[in-house]
Amino acid sequence: MTSSLQICLPADTDNYCVMGNPISHSKSPQIHKIFAEQTDQNLFYQAILVDPDCFSEALSEFQRLGGKGLNITVPFKGDACNAVDHLTARAKKAAAVNTIWFDKKGESHGDTTDATGLVNDLRANDIQLQDKNILILGAGGAVRGVLSGLLEQGVQSITIANRTHSRAEELVTNYGSDERLSASEFTDLKSGFFDIIINGTSASLYGELLPIDDTLAMNTCCYDMVYADADTCFVKWARENGARIALDGLGMLVHQAAASFYIWRDVSPQTSSVIEIIRSKS
Predict the structure, then answer these.
(1) Enclosing domain of residue 128
(2) Residues marked as catalytic
(3) For strand 196-199 and strand 133-137, is the pairing parallel, antiparallel, or unpaired?
(4) Nearest to 64 by CA among 21, 23, 9
(5) pLDDT score for 192
(6) Does 23 share its domain with 145?
(7) Is residue 277 part of a domain?
């Protein structure tokens, strides 16, 4: 079954969605429903499962059926970057898109609100970024989407670690001469250096632990960009190994969703109460 056959948009409302694979875990429909109620907006937001090679088809079909805008999650943020007609400066630099909208000419625009979501949630949890040494696990689209935003916060250093050094090094190289960035493999990481560890891989979606030393978590702030109804395996790992604080990505999701909502509707929803509501339903 192709992704286009899964798309059905209700009439008499503005339609939005999130596309990804997997997607059944997504809380974005709940979040945007609350945002719409808060701000008195007439819209419908749904999650759409897209087959791995069908993103462009699904995007075109969603637009053809009258969709107004959409969010993109793993593994399609890079595909979305290549599929849209216009990119914001930050999306172009990140080479990743999580927010798409269509203008009156029918042309598509892409942006990334992930960095805004991550930074705002870290701040909301009193995690400071200025002068901190950060470890980011993974080198895919999720990491590309937040890297510039983290660098803009005045961090001391960011180490990008991946299963393969070459992919991490490629991401570092894309940022030119920023001496704060370095690349590593998971197995080469040493404990005692990092203030904050951010899991930017999708491993937690599949209940997988990454091959990193347990001592890395000691006295650090650990943040999983993935979220779940219960603690993710990364959050559990962090707590079991002495992390000072361990958080999943629900707050990031709500904050980045608010930024997307503003792009689409020109209205800023309130976020803290939404995080509490969604968490209470988990």
Answers:
(1) 115-251
(2) 77
(3) parallel
(4) 9
(5) 87
(6) no
(7) no
261 falls within a domain: no
Cβ contacts of 38 within 8 Å, gap of 6 or more: 269, 270, 274
> Domain total for the chain?
2
The pLDDT, as a whole number, for residue 168 is 96
φ, ψ for residue 211 (rounded to 5)? -80, 65
Same domain, 69 and 164: no
Radius of gyration for the chain, computed over Cα atoms and rounded to the nearest angstrom? 18
Q: Which DSSP helix (H) or strand (E) runs through 168? A: helix 165-174
Question: pLDDT at position 229, please?
Answer: 86
Whole-angstrom CA distances from 231 to 29, 245, 250 are 21, 13, 11
DSSP 128-166: --TT-EEEEE--SHHHHHHHHHHHTTT-SEEEEEESSHH
The vertex-160 CA angle with 212 and 178, nearest 5°, equals: 155
The pLDDT value recorded for residue 3 is 41
The C-alpha atoms of residue 58 and residue 8 are separated, in whole angstroms, by 11
| pLDDT tens, residue by residue, 49-63 | 999 999 999 999 999
Pairing status of strand 133-137 against strand 86-87: unpaired
Tell me, yes or no, whether 39 and 60 share the same domain: yes
137 and 242 in a single domain? The answer is yes
Q: Are residues 234 and 128 in the same domain?
A: yes
pLDDT along the chain (282 residues), means of 10: 66 97 93 98 97 96 97 92 96 92 97 96 96 96 90 97 95 87 94 95 92 96 93 97 97 98 97 95 77
36 is written with which tokens?
A: 């719409």
